[in-house]
Amino acid sequence: MTRPLAILGSALLLLLGAANLARADEPTAPAVEPTSAPAPVKAPEPVKPREPVKPPEAAKVPEPVKVVLPAQVRGMGRPAVRPNRALGAFAAALLFLPRKMVELIFLASGTAAGLVRDQQVVPRVEELFSPSSGEITIFPTLFLASRQRPSAGVRVLGRLDPFAASLAFGIGGLNDINSEARLRYAVSKPLPIAVDVEGLYDIRSGLQYLGLGQRPDRDCRNNFVGLGTDAECDGKSLVRTARTEPAALYLERRARGIVSLGVRPGENFELFVSSSFLRSAVEDSPDAGTVALSRVFQPGSVLGSSGSTHQFYTEIALRYDTRLTSGRPSSGGLLEGYTGLARGTGDDNLGYFRVGGRAALFIPVLRKSNILSPQITLDGLAPALDSRVPFTNLISQPEFRGFDTRRDYFSAMATIDYRWSLMRYLAARIFLDAAAVASSPAHIFDAPPRIATGFGIDLFGESALLGQLAFSFSADGVRLLLSFGLPPGFGDRQHRY
Length: 497
What we know:
Layout: H1 2-25, H2 85-94, H3 96-107, H4 110-116, E1 136-145, E2 151-160, E3 163-173, E4 176-187, E5 193-209, E6 248-263, E7 269-284, H5 293-296, E8 308-321, E9 332-344, E10 351-365, E11 367-383, E12 410-423, E13 426-438, E14 450-460, E15 465-474, E16 477-484, H6 493-496
Antiparallel strand pairs: 1-2, 1-16, 2-3, 3-4, 4-5, 5-6, 6-7, 7-8, 8-9, 9-10, 10-11, 11-12, 12-13, 13-14, 14-15, 15-16
């Protein structure tokens, strides 16, 4: 009995020893100090099932090419038509000018603007270095006006900061040629400053001279061939005879050099100082016949009608302009004044003083881009002591949008414009001009003013007017004006006279 019990006890001891050895091989967890409350056990996140792997798509087998027999095709047979290259070339030629206009628009920074137009321009700081330096643009110039010879040419603008240059040439005939070269140096610090050096040469024929005064045919200062007399003029010639035309025609050759300095001391102020030398020669216009200058007026009665003149002219001008830009329609105000002195060289006893100015308001109507602009312009000239004034240097009215045919020692002009934007870089306008000339301000109302009204379209850049198409209506007739690259403007006296 004892032997089986011993065998059973030995087996139990062996089993308990194996269990202890297995429990000793397991890692022992660190002892955890008892806390007041056991920490909550976080539930395990559910395991997302794996997406089944899509088997790769089988490569598509290309469909077999179907063969269609000619007998199975229905329709009408037509011969192949090649594009008309001549028509395309013609269309490209028609679009050449608009394309170049757009190119010029983006080149018309403040510096380039002073080279495109005769009006003096001192660019604002933000306009000085736009576009980028190193650009060269070539574009056509065109001028067409009623009763004047048309002219076409080419202008080249180049820029390499801080310099900008312009070369231009135009021709309207054997006796109508103009050429110019300009170089501008412009910097923005410490103030916006522009220095220009220019050389110009032109020949113009078919120019008109009616005589002095608002009504030249009734002005006693004019001595016409083919006398008509009046008691008030003490027997002096007063009225042209029916054998002559209303205007005398002449030709003028001019060579000119100009140096100018422009400074912008304030955001809205511009100061200009310029000096020029001019050599001018006048003669009868070729093929003028009975309306030549020497056959309409008594010999020697028109100063400067023969021979040549040589003069130095120096001018100082100040402008206050609150508009953001003079190109697109902008609100603001403008006030400008100038004075100048001319003296002949050598034996030429030419000499005179010139003074004038203008004032304008630019008032927005309904929209910021709709601008109503009233403006008044005054110009005066006085001979220096014992000096003469050639008729080509007398005050004229190039801003008058009728026919600029009056000359005298004093001019007054009032205008009102309504201008609005049609699209970017394009604006329309309607206008009314009233202009008069006289021997002095006291006689400016002796004769009624000339009136011109009309409408037009302007092409403009950010800093300058680049071109225009305008129609005006006055007692002298209908005038058409088309210009691109050569727009007129106030402030170009150094180029005008």
